[in-house]
C-alpha cells in the first residue's frame, strides 16, 4: 500500500480502479502495452490520423488566411511540414515496434521529446517551433481520439483518472460520466480543471507529485478529496474506514438538501442572491436542483473546447437559448469566451509565451479577433430578445477595453436591427474585476458598465504574483491574504459609491469558511459552483451581519493569510458530520 499526499481540490470520497491517461507534459494520453500482432493495426491508425490531421490543417490554413491573415496562416503551413516529417515518422514506427506501446503513447513520446529538445536549445524561433511540434502532437492525438469507436480505449465506467495535468480542453474530451475521481500530478485548487471537477461534483486531488510513478492502470485507489490524499492498493481496514466516511458524507449531504427550498437569509434578516457558476448547458440542471437565484457566471469556454473549430452563431445561440429558457425568469450572466493564459484551443494557436498569464488574453484578445467576438455577441443578443441575460467581459484591464467593446456591440446591434432580428438594446454589460488595475479603477469603470463581478481566481494570482495553475507557486496563492482582502474591501466600497451591483464569482466565494468574512467585507451577491451552493447557504444562514463586519475588520488588521485562516477557523462552528482529519 502507498499513501500519496496532494491538495484536495474537489471534496468527496471515491474508491475505484486507476486509469492512467497521461504520460507527457500538458497531455492526456492513454498508455498501454500492445501485442506484436497489434503493431500493423497501429501503423494503419497512424497513417489515417496523419491524413486526417493534414486535411484539418489545410482547411485551417485557408480559413485563418481568410479570417485572420496570411502571416498567422503560415503557422499551419509550418505545422503541415512537421506533420509529414520523415524522421519523426520513422521514430514513431520504431517506438511502436521496439517498445510495444500503443500509438498514442509512441506519438506522444516522439513528438514530445522533439518539442522538448527544441525548447532546451532555446531562442525565439526554436521555441516557437517547439510549440508547433507540440501542437502537431496534440492534433494527431485528437485525430486518434476521434477515430471510430473501438479504435479508442474507452475510459472504463467507475474509473479514477490519473494524469499528469488536465487541461480544460482535454478534460472536455474525456467521457466524464465514467469518471469517479481525478488524481493529477500538476495543478492547484484554482486550476481550471479543478473548477471543472468541482462543477461536476467529482472528487479530485491534485499536486500528487509522484502520481504517475506510483500508480498503474488497474491499481485500486481511494481518493480522499477532503483531506487531499490518495491510497494506492489500500488494506482492507482502510477501505472499511472510508466506506464509513463516505456514508457520513452522504448523510451530511442529505442534511444539506433540506436547505434547498430555504432562502439564503442572514440571521438578522437580510436576503442575499445566491447564484450558480456554470460551464455548460447541463450545469443549469444542477443550478435548478439547488434552487439557484440565477446564473452569475456562465463560462463559455467549455463549449469552445469540445469542438474542433469555433462554434457557429447558430450553435452558440442554440445552447445558450436552451439554458436561458431553463433558467427563465431568473437572470443569466453570459461571459464572453475567455481565451489566452492556460485557456487554449487546439484550433486557435496563440504565439508561444514565456508567461501565458501575462500575455494577451480575455477581452483584449477577443478585440483582436472580431470575427469570434461578433459571432458570440450576436448569439448573446439574440438570446436577450426573450430572456434577462447580460454580458460579462473577461480580464478587463481598463476603460479602453470596455469602450472598444461597446463600439463593437453597437455595430453588432445595428447589423441585427438591419436584419430584423430582435434583441434587448439595453442589454446590461458587466466587467470582471480580476486584474489589480481594474480593481483600483472601479469608480471609473463603473461609469462605463452596468455591473461588476469580482473574479478572485485571477485577482489573487495577479495581486500576489503567484501563478494559479502552478503547483510550485501554490503555497503563495492565498485568497485570504490581507492584501487581497483589502483590495476586495476597496472594490466593494467603490462599487457601492458608484451605485453599481457587484457580485463575487471567484472560487473563494464557494468555501463556507469564507462566507462571513466576505459578507463582512460588504459583498451581497455570491455566485458559486452548484455543488457548493447549499454549504454556502448554510453559512449565510448562520451569519449575523454586524458580527461579520467585526470579523472582516479584525481580518484586515492581520498580517498574513495564515493568521486570517486561524481567525476564521476560531469562528467556525464545530465540524458536523465531516470527514475525520485523516493523514
Ligand atoms: C476568476 O478569475 O475568478 C473567474 C471567475 O474566472 P476564471 O476562473 O474562469 O478565470
Ligand atoms: Mg478569471
Write a concise synopsis of the structure shown.
This protein has helices at residues 39-67, 70-83, 86-99, 103-121, 124-145, 168-171, 192-200, 211-214, 236-257, 283-289, 301-305, 313-327, 362-367, 370-384, 399-418, 436-440, 442-446, 456-464, 482-497, 515-520, 533-541, 545-556, 561-571, and strands at 2-5, 7-10, 13-20, 159-163, 179-184, 204-206, 220-224, 229-232, 274-278, 294-298, 331-335, 389-393, 429-433, 451-454, 501-504, 526-528.
How would you describe what is shown here?
There is one protein chain. With 583 residues, the chain is an alpha/beta fold. The chain has helices at residues 39-67, 70-83, 86-99, 103-121, 124-145, 168-171, 192-200, 211-214, 236-257, 283-289, 301-305, 313-327, 362-367, 370-384, 399-418, 436-440, 442-446, 456-464, 482-497, 515-520, 533-541, 545-556, 561-571; strands spanning 2-5, 7-10, 13-20, 159-163, 179-184, 204-206, 220-224, 229-232, 274-278, 294-298, 331-335, 389-393, 429-433, 451-454, 501-504, 526-528. The radius of gyration is 24 Å and the shape is globular. The two termini are 15 Å apart. 48% of the residues are buried. Mean pLDDT is 89; it is low at 23-27, 148-153 and 575-583. Bound molecules: phosphoenolpyruvate and magnesium ion (MG). Residues 195, 297, 299, 338, 434, 455-458, 505-506 line the site of phosphoenolpyruvate.
